[in-house]
Amino acid sequence: MSLRNGLALLFLCLTALPLGATDIVWPTTMDRASIRNPQDYLQPTVSGKMESALFGMVREEGKRFHEGIDIRPAKTNADGEPLDLVLAAMDGQVAYLNANVNGPYGRYVVLHHTAAEIPVYTLYAHLAKIEPSLKTAQPVRRGTVIGLMGRTSAGVSPITKDRSHLHFEVGLMLSRGFNRWYDAQPENKQSPNLHGLYNGQNLIGMDPMLILGQPKVDILAALRSQPTALTVGLRTNKMPDFVQYYPALMRGDTSRVAGWYIEFSWQGMPVRWTALDAKSPQLPAGRWRLLEIDQTQRTRLIQRKMLGADGRTPGELLTQSLEVLLSTAR
Ligand SMILES: [Zn+2]
């Protein structure tokens, strides 16, 4: 092949590459063309505050975290129950089906998207019905009907008819060894793990609006766009399951790893991992240590329990997340 032809072929290959773009659809049958503003698709809590339907510390005066977004129905039947169907947002496979109303999510479906730039899960909760033909591990195309929007929940306050919605989440899994960790906790003796790896404690969501509402999205770029809120130095010469599962979030020389410098987003996603060698000043004396805190994010880090009430020491959530991340290191 001549140099010119070679270059032409290279150019063709480069321009034909999808350049990190995963096709994505809105997860309900709502006509997106009819949407003029967020009120057209958001379902707020009984507070009526629109932001309560969004991702973040948006509930109970900023004290309660909402890990996804709540999408309202566009159509209801004569009884006021939703007629909107719930759709797979991206190509993927069925990871988990929970047909019982035995937790705050009610009936829910989890999909896993291994063909995206980084494997993410999406979660669809409070369904009235799960599409009966769905089976675990079955491949699904984006836009496939996975259920009917509803209001199922075994949470403390039932979801009333006028607040029916789809709770939609997207995120990562802390550890594929979560079940072992959960069962080893004495306080969990009385509450068996009903949802295995898809237990909410093992899933860490990001803002779905970073990916929804556009036809194509680079999932990895969306994940990386989350700023660092605090950092932790961790001592272990092992590769935690998280970095084995999500190598795209890891950098540095892993051949002589003595520990990790982990950057967490405010809601507790360990977004960036840097391998440390034995001489690194970030390597803690003990097992792990909180290193830096972005003071502009202090309030929500405290509310989220990533920090203690003093705003300086590790909070319960950070401690638990590190236990889960560490306990399964191989
Ligand atoms: Zn919700």
3D structure, described in words:
The protein folds into 2 domains: 22-220, Glucose Permease (Domain IIA), CATH 2.70.70.10; 226-327, no CATH class. Helices cover 15% and strands 26% of the residues. It has 6 helices and 19 strands. Strands 4, 6, 7, 8, 10, 12 and 13 form a 7-stranded antiparallel sheet that branches. The protein has a 5-stranded mixed sheet with strand order 16-18-17-15-19, with no helix packed on it. The longest helix has 14 residues, at 3-16. Mean pLDDT is 92; it is low at 13-18. The structure holds zinc ion. Zinc ion binds next to loops.
Give the SSE map.
Blueprint: H1 3-16, E1 22-23, E2 56-59, E3 64-66, E4 69-71, E5 85-87, E6 92-98, E7 107-113, E8 120-127, E9 129-130, E10 139-140, E11 145-148, E12 166-173, H2 178-184, E13 203-206, E14 216-217, H3 219-224, E15 230-235, H4 241-245, E16 250-251, E17 259-264, E18 270-276, E19 288-293, H5 298-303, H6 316-327
Bound molecules: zinc ion.
Tally of alpha and pi helices: 6
Low-confidence segments, given as residue ranges, are 13-18
Helix share, percent? 10-25%
- The overall average pLDDT, rounded, is 92
